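Case study B.
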Amino acid sequence: MSTDPVISNPEHYSVVFENEFVRVLDYHDFPGDITTPHLHPNSVMCTLSSFRRRLHAGPRVVDVDIQAGAAMWLPAQEHFGENTGATPTHVIFVELKGDAHTVLGGGFGPQ
Amino acid sequence: MSTDPVISNPEHYSVVFENEFVRVLDYHDFPGDITTPHLHPNSVMCTLSSFRRRLHAGPRVVDVDIQAGAAMWLPAQEHFGENTGATPTHVIFVELKGDAHTVLGGGFGPQ
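Model:
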């Protein structure tokens, strides 16, 4: 099963544009929605809504409460997430390619 | 005079965070504001407001009318801009570093 979120969770993730340096994704969900496990390369998240989410990576769980208009580093990670708040989640992911794409082993959740 | 917008136009540009792969800037202005000439490396723009701007690069001028929630490619370019609309401009710039940082000679304005 693919861990590319555009393939694993196409109801939530779509490609805005892509070139040799980046792939840019739009993520949208509603309260109660939950994704299947998927992989993010090193990315920058720009939040277009305020939201609360619970992220799961293996046995690890983290709850996040993030305001609209934030820009945060998302180190490469495999996770799944559930919208635990009362509002939709709307986020742009700027996925990095090349040497910047890399590799699991950093932190978990946005930073 | 520096062409780094954080130095040339600190009233509009601030650094949200920076690591080895990216520098992320927050841009904010009000109607009528105009910047001095500055340089953007290859970047992704995420728009947090809808806005109208006039961009100038040497003799070239382009008017843009962009909606909130957009993500667009900004090829490396030196320009200055004026808020020609009736609303503030609020944008996140994800500036790319390394091989992706490069070099003037692409298009002009966001794409």
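The radius of gyration of chain A is 13 Å. The remaining cases will be described in the next quarterly update.
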